[in-house]
Write a structure and sequence with these properties.
It comes from Podiceps cristatus. Belongs to the arginase family. Agmatinase subfamily. This protein has a single domain, classed as Ureohydrolase domain (Arginase, Chain A, 3-Layer(aba) Sandwich). Helices cover 30% and strands 19% of the residues. Helix 5 packs parallel to helix 6.
Length: 203
Amino acid sequence: VASGCVPLTLGGDHTVTYPILQAVAEKHGPVGLVHVDAHTDTGDRALGEKIYHGTPFRRCVEEGLLACSRVVQIGIRGSSYDPDPYEYCRDQGFRVVPAEECWRKSLAPLMGEVRKQMGDKPVYISFDIDGLDPAYAPGTGTPEIAGLTPAQALEIIRGCKGLNIVGCDLVEVAPMYDVSGNTALLGANLLFEMLCVLPGVKT
């Protein structure tokens, strides 16, 4: 980041996004976030630990790394320990787009709204592979049914073209669960798509 590179990071555990955003925000100030995931990753702690793959965005909020009015979380779903699992996110000003709002439709109109929300200020893309349905991406540690399709994933990433993207990651691919290799294939292609929408890249 200090050298002017735009980091595209491969995970691994979603915890990696936390230190990346520390470095990105140190240079750019609080950033907008396009976050694709089955989970909000805004928990406070698990098994007594405050840093794990379900807490990175709460830690980022606490440190002022995110411009909360420019955070959108897409594909959120699954069971919860809380009767209102998105309350924290809404209280911060995040836009939460549950998976059921994405079923059976193109996400191009949503991304038009997201581009207006993000404006020309710095934006980071964090893509958890479990945002996709496990039919397409089984190789992950916390799969949730009824997720996004690969076509919708492309609509989200391609819909970020023109934004001031200052970093991206693709996380939570778990090779030991990826018997067919399809999850790795999908993850690699999504990272390539992110590369193609970076500012100044000609495609």
